Automatic annotation (TrEMBL):
Record-stated family: Belongs to the enoyl-CoA hydratase/isomerase family.
One annotated GO biological process: fatty acid beta-oxidation
Keyword Lyase: yes
Residues passing through the membrane, by range: none
Official protein name in the record: Probable enoyl-CoA hydratase echA8
Matches recorded under PANTHER family: ENOYL-COA HYDRATASE, MITOCHONDRIAL (PTHR11941:SF54), ENOYL-COA HYDRATASE-RELATED (PTHR11941)
Keyword presence, Iron: no
SUPFAM superfamilies reported for this sequence: ClpP/crotonase
First-tier enzyme category under EC: lyase
Keywords in alphabetical order: Fatty acid metabolism, Lipid metabolism, Lyase
Length: 258
């Protein structure tokens, strides 16, 4: 395990885990933490030896939002020119799947970070919310756009306009999280799911992630064209032939990630 100022990182086989580590501030996303997180994630994304990334926090907080104390004196112009939080664009465009393993508070920028990941596994202690309205602002890392896509307009509007938090069970019922597990099993379950993803063909995983992303961004007809092209392209990989041959020969595939 290696430690920088505000995160720790660890690699196990083809799975990398980034742990947010500012316990004194409930993992509030200050500029140092965000810079370290994005740098670490992009480095793993560039490494073909890594097939899945897990981002997690502590038992009490995944992240309690952007760092309010750091933002208090920021101006309109500071925010327009990037403020203390540049670099999310690169994070959002990563090819490697990212799982958010969320226990405790995932609020404001913390909820938004979790939603930037491919999916969320939640502990039964997880609490999601966009409480920015209580601070005289609104979500700024994508919450007003991703939350309605995840839970529908009515629930998202209620949460963004009132600041109400949503517990893990409601979050699963509403489609915000993939699955809820007991808190003491969260990290083991996230590691298991990540290892499963990392065992698949890397080009197939990249393409599937891309197509799922397209579903969030494109109209249906365009998304279907995108998928058809990506599906055809999968037949240019060695892993497609290996995957199908292994099925026919009733054996496990040996993907070479080519
Ligand atoms: N920024 C800076 N510091 C934070 C923080 C944040 N977002 N959230 C918590 N902290 C700090 C607290 O100030 C406190 O520090 P001190 O001990 O130095 O006072 C420490 O973390 C522990 O917090 P609490 O004592 O408040 O813990 P609690 O258990 O009583 O309450 C909480 C937990 C309900 C999460 C509460 O801390 C809280 O409401 N936090 C703020 C949540 C929030 O408003 N998030 C949105 C931020 S804005 C944003 O994210 C914008 C965007 O979209 C990009």
């Amino acid at each position: 395990m290696s430690e920088t100022t505000c995160i720790t990182t660890a690699v196990d086989g083809r799975v990398a885990t980034i742990t947010l580590n500012r316990p004194e501030a409930l993992n509030a996303l200050n500029s140092t933490l965000v810079t370290e997180l994005i740098e670490a994630a992009l480095a793993y994304d560039a490494d073909p030896g890594i097939g899945c990334i897990v981002i997690t926090g502590s038992a009490k907080a995944f992240a309690a939002g952007a760092d309010i104390k750091e933002m208090v004196d920021q101006s309109y112009t500071d925010m327009l020119t990037g403020g203390p939080f540049p670099g999310w664009g690169g994070f959002e465009r990563m090819r490697t799947p990212v799982i958010a393993a969320v226990a405790g508070f995932a609020l404001g920028g913390g909820c938004e970070l979790a939603m930037m990941c491919d999916f969320i596994l939640a502990a039964d202690t997880a609490k999601f919310g966009q409480p920015e309205i209580n601070l005289g602002i609104l979500p700024g890392f994508g919450g007003s756009q991703r939350l309605p896509r995840a839970v529908g307009k009515a629930k998202a509007a209620e949460m963004v306009l009132t600041g109400r938090m949503m517990g893990a069970e409601e979050a699963e019922r509403s489609g915000l999280v993939a699955r809820v597990v007991p808190a003491d099993e969260l990290l083991a379950e996230a590691a298991k799911v990540a290892a499963t993803i990392a065992s698949k063909s890397l080009p197939a995983v990249y393409a599937a992630k891309d197509a799922l992303q397209a579903a969030q961004e494109m109209p249906l007809a365009e998304g279907l064209r995108f998928e058809r092209q990506a599906f055809a392209a999968a037949f240019a990989t060695a892993d497609q032939e290996e995957g199908m041959r292994a099925f026919a020969e009733k054996r496990a595939p040996e993907f070479t990630h080519r």
